[in-house]
Amino acid sequence: MEDTYTMYQLEDTKRKPYLVSVKLNNTEINMEIDTGASVSVISQETCKQVFGSDHSLEKSPCSLRTYTGEKIDVLGKRNVTVIYNSQSVDLPITVVKGTGPSLMGRDWLHKLQLNWKSIFKIEQLSHNQEPEKDKELQDLLRKYPQVFKEGLGTLKGTKARIYVDKDATPKYFKARPVPYALKEKIEKELDRLEKGGNIEKVEFSEWAAPIVPIVKPDKSVRICGDYKVTINQVSKLDNYPIPKTDDLYATLSGGTSFFQARSEPGLSTNCTRRGVT
């Protein structure tokens, strides 16, 4: 029977995680103290550091899920000798796929007597250094204003190419009907994209894909192109494997800066009820 455990790891970029340094099989590893994690875990990469060429793992009877319900790929488990201060204990560790942080969960916290005063002192020293980091940030903002200004940035010196079969016949799809409830929002979004230089009207085009309006959580509309009926059918595929969502989350874990790329001008031709853009 498979037991399901939840990993309640929520991160605040303004607060550094509480870290504790332990030795796993005489390899020093920094672990995040996570009282929301039912079990202690290390990534596949950390497992290689700790166990070297011995990659043997026992099958784990547990299933792990994140706070939002996504399933975490569990590779297996094994026992490890944990050394902390004067304590030495053999404890089970769960190995998960990816490169995320090592988490000390409740199963280990019940067995180890941590020096909480020392842990809180280190965190307080780190927190007191934040004003200096804020000053560095402000210096960077002043030094590179063009990089951090509002609006859509421009990538210069590089062009994107879509490789199409030589014998491909251009496909032109007329605009699809849109729900009346979304019509005004779509018009406003098209105006915004045109004023921002993201799209521009053209008189004629051999290629045109219909748009697909997506309602975002804030009730605004994102304009997407349905390229599966046009260019996707004749373009040459990139064989690079698309990573799974869990792999992306593991890679992004611990990150402090993220951005979202929006529609870029001159990248595509879409067919709307207002004409070709």
TrEMBL record:
<keyword id="KW-0378">Hydrolase</keyword>
<dbReference type="InterPro" id="IPR021109">
    <property type="entry name" value="Peptidase_aspartic_dom_sf"/>
</dbReference>
<dbReference type="GO" id="GO:0016779">
    <property type="term" value="F:nucleotidyltransferase activity"/>
</dbReference>
<dbReference type="InterPro" id="IPR050951">
    <property type="entry name" value="Retrovirus_Pol_polyprotein"/>
</dbReference>
<keyword id="KW-0255">Endonuclease</keyword>
<protein>
    <recommendedName>
        <fullName>Peptidase A2 domain-containing protein</fullName>
    </recommendedName>
</protein>
<dbReference type="GO" id="GO:0004519">
    <property type="term" value="F:endonuclease activity"/>
</dbReference>
<dbReference type="InterPro" id="IPR001995">
    <property type="entry name" value="Peptidase_A2_cat"/>
</dbReference>
<dbReference type="GO" id="GO:0004190">
    <property type="term" value="F:aspartic-type endopeptidase activity"/>
</dbReference>
<dbReference type="Pfam" id="PF13975">
    <property type="entry name" value="gag-asp_proteas"/>
</dbReference>
<keyword id="KW-0548">Nucleotidyltransferase</keyword>
<keyword id="KW-0808">Transferase</keyword>
<feature type="domain" description="Peptidase A2">
    <location>
        <begin position="29"/>
        <end position="108"/>
    </location>
</feature>
<keyword id="KW-0540">Nuclease</keyword>
<dbReference type="GO" id="GO:0006508">
    <property type="term" value="P:proteolysis"/>
</dbReference>
<dbReference type="InterPro" id="IPR043502">
    <property type="entry name" value="DNA/RNA_pol_sf"/>
</dbReference>
